Amino acid sequence: MTRPKALIAAVVVLLAGLGVRAATAGVFAKYAGVALYAVLVYVLVLVVAPRIRPAMSAGISLACCWAVEFFQLTSIPADLSSRSTIARLVLGSTFNTPDLLWYTVGVAAAYLVHAWAVRPAVGGRPGVPRPGGAARS
């Protein structure tokens, strides 16, 4: 993935996350927002390292998301979130065990899309030479 494409994807995911939180409510809004947060972290990893492999990006993204969640066991995120909307959006305020699952769901979805997007072509298209072989008819 190229850096510009990753930046566009980041904006789309950010808008989707904010939209879900604004247009829906309750449990769906909460956990869809958590999953989209994880997708955003995944895409931001691609912004920083556009040629990273999907498995590595997934591992880094999940580690970051879980680190933020476990950081909420301290009083620091809640204190910062009470004073800043940006801090609240980035760090949250309270630890919630189900968030760990929903981060994993978001990263898994992003991983599947990324892995599909960078997969090598299998068999090629008709009339297009395959690596190491002749064109198919």
Instruction: Tell me the major beta sheet.
Output: none
**pLDDT average, as an integer?**
89
- Principal-axis shape equals globular
Strand content: under 5%
- Strand and helix order: HHHHHH
Q: Give the radius of gyration.
A: 18 Å
Structural class computed from helices and strand pairing: mainly alpha
Low-confidence stretches: none
How many domains would you count in the coordinates? 1
| Oligomerization | single chain
**What is the tally of beta strands?**
0
Give the N-to-C terminal Cα separation: 31 Å
Helical content band = over 70%
| Count of helical stretches | 6
Task: Provide a descriptive summary of the structure in words.
This is DUF2809 domain-containing protein. The chain crosses the membrane at residues 32-52. Pfam families: DUF2809. Keywords: Membrane, Transmembrane, Transmembrane helix. By secondary structure, the chain is mainly alpha-helical. The chain has one domain. The protein is built from six helices and no strands. It is globular. The mean pLDDT is 89.
Characteristic key phrases:
single chain, mainly alpha, globular
Give a summary of the structure in a few sentences:
The protein has six helices and no strands. It has about 140 residues and is mostly helical. Helix 1 (about 5-25) packs antiparallel against helix 2 (about 25-50).
